[in-house]
Amino acid sequence: xxxxxxxxxxxxxxxxxxxxxxxxxxxxxxxxxxxxxxxxxxxxxxxxxxxxxxxxxxxxxxxxxxxxxxxxxxxxxxxxxxxxxxxxxxxxxxxxxxxxxxxxxxxxxxxxxxxxxxxxxxxxxxxxxxxxxxxxxxxxxxxxxxxxxxxxxxxxxxxxxxxxxxxxxxxxxxxxxxxxxxxxxxxxxxxxxxxxxxxxxxxxxxxxxxxxxxxxxxxxxxxxxxxxxxxxxxxxxxxxxxxxxxxxxxxxxxxxxxxxxxxxxxxxxxxxxxxxxxxxxxxxxxxxxxxxxxxxxxxxxxxxxxxxxxxxxxxxxxxxxxxxxxxxxxxxxxxxxxxxxxxxxxxxxxxxxxxxxxxxxxxxxxxxxxxxxxxxxxxxxxxxxxxxxxxxxxxxxxxxxxxxxxxxxxxxxxxxxxxxxxxxxxxxxxxxxxxxxxxxxxxxxxxxxxxxxxxxxxxxxxxxxxxxxxxxxxxxxxxxxxxxxxxxxxxxxxxxxxxxxxxxxxxxxxxxxxxxxxxxxxxxxxxxxxx
Length: 531
Description:
34% of the residues lie in helices and 15% in strands. It is α/β, with parallel strands linked by helices. Helix 3 (58-67) packs parallel to helix 13 (338-347) and helix 14 (381-394) runs parallel beside helix 16 (416-440).
């Protein structure tokens, strides 16, 4: 029973901006006519996000597939904690703000500045800043990470301008000193994941903590100058900058006695910067750890307890498919490259590190390339395929799950041509896997966790037509789509039919896997897609 997750491959408009439709995909075409095929909801409330205007993402998608149920996710839990006041009544908020008031050092906020609602939301930051002002925290510094990935690729001033306005209004009270202190692109600094490139985290530490970087008088000035010097650069790869105070020195290095909050709610790109602040034994780069009161918005790894202090409790996802199979002695394999390895392991298992039973589970990570994804859109799909084919043919694995990251990681670059090739590579790998499954008389599920490569253009909200910049060039889209995702279920030699379900989604996949393996679905799981 093999599950293939084509990360970021949704069902688009089938037009010139749909890299999935433009790609040559004979294997997917064959599956669409010979396998049981339908579409699944993969965004919004269907995966535990606050509203259906919220795009899905890989973390909540894999949570939903592995848990078989919908759990309220980070964005929704933070919204609720802020609205109810529970976040500010909590001991961790009091600890951070009290430390800053006692020392005279600022409360520092570090995180992704956008309304993408995938890693963070600017409204959460505004709520935290407003509460600091209300509670007489006299100094605040904000270290901004530019998005350009879950929002339009050069939209940063849409978020910096209102942030600067809020800070200026607070500073009208002369006892306040609130300012942006540093910044840089999310794929340039701070937000690395899975240990792929610790140099990113080191750059972030240098800018945010040490105040080491090119100085500018304001964030807006920094962005305007650096944009002119680096024409065409996406916000996500934006160079780092540091803001100077009136004395010409960095206005916000993080010193002993400060309070520090990393305000992203999503975990994968938060863990490494948390370790840089919290780990006493740390060898990833040379670092002098300041003595601060540090907290994350949420606990990003409940097994490793990262971070030790957090403002909002993460969803408690229990009774996952991985655990159910392990308890029933079903041998499992999970495999992907570094960029999505944690998704088929940690997130699939309900935000749980490690294995349920090491004797029955095998996790394989293929190291990702450290080059821009549009330059190598094939990524490590072939190596993943090699690994899985070999393991299936030589072992007693009954359930395997793999993630091909190509559609998502290349889609995020906004490069349409490379994204088309990325989808074709995935299809080519499916062509290698299909005969293996047929020879073994196994079962194959091919699906996705959310859309991305299926919509590579920014769209006019009313007409759906591609947006164009002042030169007439179509604006590339680097964020996920709101489109449904495909699912193809193929069992050689067996006639299958779909169950009559209303609005099926990613959580239905777990029960479908159990159905094909001959197990009953656990209580509370969404039903199988099959009759």
